[in-house]
């Protein structure tokens, strides 16, 4: 029987993957750190996987963090390159509350060897203790995002100096994002709660969790903007993840484009940014595109992973999305698969990839049916020119509207129990979990009415 486990996506070898902690790119080597539980009754810790020559061939390395002393668990945070090594900022949870702590790897090229012990810890990771704890005004600091600070607030072309941290505080049902700054990453000054100037597009009572930042140069006006990645927890149990574009100055975010969805599928939450080592990209490339990814789950922390089919049948739950190459155009993110995906699919055992340029007049559509090896259609993707939908035939279809100026192109990636759809030149992305029986056998495509498929590519055995 074919496994539901994806080959190209990051999953925990066993246990429950809960969130990405961060990704660090060192040349063509990608380090993925993630929060997971080895078993439902065990505390959360940080795992580590590494992929060379592109982010698709992940090898499991020893874990980097685990609860110690009075800790009950260690939760997600951020990883940055600093002075030839890597700094890890994580959330330490004890019976008394939470704090943000710091750990360091002196040489990221000298990591521990792969071991047969699934709970072994990398001895090259050294903890340095608490860097941020409760203040008179704020408590329960958690989920830190650390990125380089600017040398000049008014002239971003001067580059970076020091560090910024965006983190959550307060109670889980009413979190307050705050901003801190540091010259060395160890001593931090609180700038204040995150405020907004302009229309955010958010409800006043929106519950904002897991905030993250990426910086991109808009291809239209050539300005460098901050892209604030957010997840909104909703009362119906479903997360809604998206982004706001603007410029962060001190603790105030000057909005230029209000909240927009980052993924329109059934299963995507808690988007994360990617940091780089100093020699990986120059300043020009650093802002021309970024890489983001998220948890392949539409519920986030409200999910009971033990009810998932992959857990019941195979002892693992959840994966991370494929890293997405991301650009900013006119205040809107465009996301495409990272380079090398077609070749990675071709070298896999079971993944499938289909991509096409189409012409879809009004009233026509192109339909792609994902069939498992029993012949059953387990998902249907329909591109009707101005709309794209993903129907899993077990719940309501997910839908996203396309702009008239978007090209009628589409790419579909099926890998284990993951389905990712890219359309409109990357203006729309949709991620949904599927449950194939005996694995996926093919992607069947038809053009209906006046629609035509002008060019198409397929990969996969």
How many β strands by DSSP?
33
Q: What overall form do the CA principal axes indicate? A: globular
Instruction: Supply the number of helical segments.
Output: 3
Alpha carbon gyration radius: 21 Å
Mean of residue pLDDT?
A: 93
Most strands sheet:
6 strands, mixed
- CATH fold title of the largest domain: Tachylectin-2, Chain A
Q: State the domain count.
A: 2
Question: How would you characterize the overall build of this protein?
Answer:
The structure is a single chain. It contains three helices and 33 strands. Helix content is 4%, strand content 54%. The protein is mainly beta and 461 residues long. Strand 1 and strand 2 form a beta hairpin.
Q: Quick recap of the structure?
A:
The chain contains 3 helices and 33 strands. Strands 1, 2, 3, 4, 19 and 21 form a 6-stranded mixed beta sheet that branches. The protein has helices at 283-288, 309-314, 341-347, and strands at 15-26, 29-37, 45-52, 58-65, 71-82, 85-94, 97-105, 125-132, 142-150, 160-169, 176-182, 188-193, 195-197, 207-217, 224-233, 239-249, 252-261, 269-272, 274-276, 290-295, 316-317, 324-329, 332-337, 352-359, 365-372, 377-383, 387-391, 398-401, 409-415, 418-423, 428-433, 440-448, 452-459.
């Amino acid at each position: 029987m074919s496994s539901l486990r994806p080959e190209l996506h990051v999953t925990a070898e066993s246990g429950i993957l809960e969130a990405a902690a961060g990704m660090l790119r060192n040349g063509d080597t990608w380090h993925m750190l993630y929060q997971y539980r080895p078993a439902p009754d065990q505390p959360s810790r940080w795992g580590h996987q590494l992929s060379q020559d592109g982010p698709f061939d992940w090898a499991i390395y020893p874990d980097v963090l685990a609860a110690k002393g009075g800790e009950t668990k260690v939760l997600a945070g951020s990883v940055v390159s600093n002075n030839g090594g890597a700094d890890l900022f994580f959330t330490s949870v004890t019976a008394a509350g939470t704090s943000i702590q710091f750990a360091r790897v002196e040489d990221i090229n000298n990591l521990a060897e792969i071991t047969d012990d699934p709970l072994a810890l990398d001895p090259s990771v050294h903890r340095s203790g608490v860097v941020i704890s409760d203040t008179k005004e704020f408590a329960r600091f958690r989920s830190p995002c650390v990125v380089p600070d600017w040398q000049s607030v008014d002239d971003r072309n001067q580059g970076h100096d020091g560090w910024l941290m965006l983190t959550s505080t307060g109670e889980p049902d009413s979190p307050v994002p705050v901003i801190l700054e540091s010259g060395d990453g160890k001593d931090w000054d609180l700038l204040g709660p995150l405020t907004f100037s302009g229309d955010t597009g958010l409800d006043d009572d929106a519950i904002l969790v897991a905030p993250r930042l990426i910086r991109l140069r808009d291809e239209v006006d050539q300005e460098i903007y901050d892209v604030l990645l957010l997840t909104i927890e909703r009362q119906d149990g479903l997360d809604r993840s998206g982004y706001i574009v603007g410029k962060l100055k001190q603790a105030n975010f000057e909005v230029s484009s209000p909240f927009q969805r980052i993924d329109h599928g059934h299963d995507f939450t808690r988007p994360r940014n990617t940091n780089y080592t100093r020699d990986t990209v120059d300043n020009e490339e650093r802002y021309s595109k970024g890489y983001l990814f998220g948890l392949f789950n539409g519920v986030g922390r409200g999910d009971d992973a033990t009810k998932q089919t992959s857990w019941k049948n195979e002892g693992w739950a959840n994966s991370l999305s494929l890293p997405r190459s991301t650009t900013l155009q006119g205040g809107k993110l465009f996301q495409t698969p990272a380079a090398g995906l077609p070749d990675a699919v071709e070298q896999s055992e079971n993944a499938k990839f289909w991509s096409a340029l189409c012409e879809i007049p009004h009233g026509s559509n192109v339909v792609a049916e994902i069939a498992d090896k029993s012949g059953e259609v387990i998902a249907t993707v329909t591109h009707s020119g101005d709309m794209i939908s993903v129907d899993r035939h077990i719940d309501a279809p997910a839908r996203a509207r396309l702009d008239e100026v978007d090209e009628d192109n589409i790419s579909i990636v099926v890998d284990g129990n993951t389905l990712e759809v890219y359309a409109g030149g990357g203006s729309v992305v949709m991620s949904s979990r599927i449950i194939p029986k005996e694995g996926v056998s093919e992607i069947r495509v038809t053009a209906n009415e006046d629609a035509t498929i002008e060019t198409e590519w397929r990969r996969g055995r």
